[in-house]
Amino acid sequence: MTQELQVGNNVKGAEADQGRFSHLNPGKCRLGILPASLQAPLPRRQRHWPPRGLLRHLPSLAHSLAASRAAARPIERGPCLSRQREEEWRRDLSRAAMTAAGSGNGFGTTAWWGFSPALDLQATCLEASMEHLQLSQDGIPELNILLVGSVDGRHILKTMSQAHRWPRRKINFYVLENNLEALGRQLLFLSLAVEPLEKMGLQEKSETFLELMGNTLLRGQTAAYLQEKANLFIRYVTDPDFQQAHLPLLDLSALKFKERDQLEAIFKFWRNHDPQTFQIKQLWDLRLRQYLGARYDSRRGVCDWDLNMKLHEHGANVINFREFYRWRDTGMAFEMREAPYDIPNKTLASGRLLRHKGERVPARGYWGDVATGPYIIFGIEAEDPSLLKTTNGIPSKSAQEISLHNVTALLYELSYNTRYDPSASSDEEGMSGNLQGAGDHSKLGANGGPPSIEDARVCFLPLNCLPELHHKGKYQQLFNLIFVSCSMVHVLKPNVNLIAAPKATLIVELTNFLPDLHKEQVSVFSSQVAKQVAEAGFVPVQAADKRPFSLFQLGHQEAGEICNEFPALEMTAPGP
Predict the structure, then answer these.
(1) Is residue 458 part of a domain?
(2) How far apart are the C-alpha atoms of 130 and 112, rounded to whole Å?
(3) Is residue 237 within 8 Å of 264, Cβ to Cβ?
(4) How does DSSP assign 6-44, residue by residue?
(5) Which has fewest Cβ within 10 Å: 14, 58, 149, 231?
(6) Which among 450, 465, 492 is the end of a domain?
């Protein structure tokens, strides 16, 4: 099989090799690739290849052909290759492995959702960590949790909603991110979750939550809600007294004044009515083209491969091809209503400094995930095993349906302090969008909010402040549980043990659900994480296979002592 690639006649600066490449047409690079397996003997795979300088001056061509380069090298004179040449070829093949799976940056530079399911952190926290809780002024045990890069508030909401299942504790969440847009979105989700049911019914609240979480386009009703909240959030960040009076759950006092000003600018952008300020359709397509490169035209097949060979292999079997491809192609993960979705979701916009004509200029665009999707956080696990049933090996429920059920159950439990039972629902009028679950309505707060919210507090910390936290006395030996996302593992330094309470639990999100990574890379990441946290004095806790996170505990313990107290998962995950 022979493939011809037009690269142009006016390429300047290419390092021409007249000896080996004089036969090549200057306007075309002829690449011959044997249709044989890569398992064929190495000498059979040697084919002509353009000089390195040509690819260096054509980055787009180099990107699209990087994977093939590893399997096609210039012919060497002589009967066989030297050992050094053999090793060089294999190194090139290893380097091209990431590109063969995509551009290697499908998860993007700005995370909008996590890459692991939501956790009840009280259920995941080790017993030894719970034994070292300090008492508050009211004599109630106080659990301090540090969330590094959780980005979407899923752990906060699930832990708060299931707090009634545990002995009473005051829970303080400290949220640390690397971008202010993530803080703004978490403020939006927290505000939506505690919205009084008299103002917004349970079903409408659940659908709005998922729309804002994972859709590039919104309904008019949802967009109007976002604009209303943006005006309210501007007052929150500019008037601390007003914020404490209306949302005492949240503490913004630790943010710098500069960060407050930037948050105000973000919320002003959210409330802008002009759809031309954020053309998400074009931005999504450009992001997808940049990610897939030459495979853009075959993106349907790429999507099928990533879903079946990557995500399903790690337990996300309930995600079907139709919904996954819809999200991959358009960015629309949740379409629950027969209504037009035509207004850009401006919460997915982020800013970056780009270099243009030698100068760094600010730009706003979409630099988020286009590989995994938002189904992982609420759509692949469920307490109700009937949601995970299969018929002839095919899941009976989609990830969208499971996500909607889980979010509805979470918001119901947060409001009524009792488990959600859809079979006992007193009102299933989906047409009205005002679904109410069965439960004791007298447990609602005076304003229709959850009564247990007074035992929780969410504190937003300054951006990227983890390396400096141990310098402040109030954070030293404070956190009983620390969660670190896979995108923020690099901030784990040996001094993190200075802010950890005795026997503290450390949860590190793994890269199981990143399609760009191969099995070997996922394994290497886990090993590097274990080595990195060991330098901080954390020891691993033996866990079951295929968990999307690793668990560690501060201090040197006997192996059996830790293994016996590993908490059981409260959710039932589908098998591989």
Answers:
(1) no
(2) 31
(3) yes
(4) E--S---S----HHHHTTS-TTEEEEE--SS-TTS-GGG
(5) 231
(6) 450
Boundary (domain end) residue, out of 383, 418, 450:
450
Residue 255: CB atoms within 10 Å: 20
Q: What is the C-alpha separation between 485 and 506, in angstroms, rounded?
A: 11
Q: Which DSSP category does 103 fall into?
A: S
| Cα 449–chain centre separation | 29
Contact 64, 29 (CB under 8 A): no
**DSSP structure class, residue 572:** B
Evaluate whether 154 touches 126 at the Cβ level (below 8 Å): no
Three-state SS for 405-444 is HHHHHHHHHHHHCCCCCHHHCCECCHHHCCCECCCCHHHC
pLDDT tens, residue by residue, 448-507:
444 357 899 999 999 999 999 999 999 999 999 999 999 999 999 999 999 999 999 999
- End-to-end Cα distance, the chain: 37
The phi and psi torsions of 125 (rounded to 5 degrees) equal -65, 140
CA distance linking residue 236 with residue 256, whole number of Å? 14
Structural domains counted in the chain? 2
3-state secondary structure of 78: coil
- Number of residues written out for the chain: 576
Q: Is residue 172 a part of any domain in this protein?
A: no
Instruction: Give the pLDDT confidence of 195-206 residue by residue, as tens digits.
Output: 998 999 999 999
Please, are residues 526 and 520 in contact by the beta-carbon 8 Å criterion?
Answer: no
Sign of CA dihedral 71, 77, 80, 82: negative
Q: DSSP state, 145?
A: E
Return the HEC string of 503-519: EEEEEEECCCCCCCCCH
Are 200 and 67 found together in one domain?
Answer: no
Q: How would DSSP label each residue in 317-341?
A: TT--HHHHHHHHHHSB----SSS--
Whether the pTM exceeds 0.85: the reply is no
Burial 433-467 (b: 16+ CB within 10 A, else e): bebbbbbeeeebeeeebbebbebbbbbbbebebbe
- Dump pLDDT digits (tens) for 132-189: 999 988 889 999 999 999 999 999 999 999 999 999 999 999 999 999 999 999 999 9
Specify whether the CB–CB gap between 556 and 293 falls below 8 A: no
Angle between helix 299-306 and 321-330 (nearest 10)? 130
Pairing of strands 456-460, 250-251: parallel
Say whether 158 sits in a helix, a strand or coil.
helix
Q: Tell whether 502 is covered by a domain.
A: no
Domain of residue 440 covers: 196-243+255-450
**CA angle centred on 185, ends 183 and 191, rounded to 5°:** 105
Domain assignment present for residue 64? The answer is yes
Task: Return contacts of 381-384, CB within 8 angstroms, 24+ apart.
Answer: 381/117, 381/406, 381/571, 381/572, 381/573, 381/574, 382/406, 382/571, 382/572, 383/409, 383/570, 383/571, 383/572
Q: Are 348 and 233 in the same domain?
A: yes
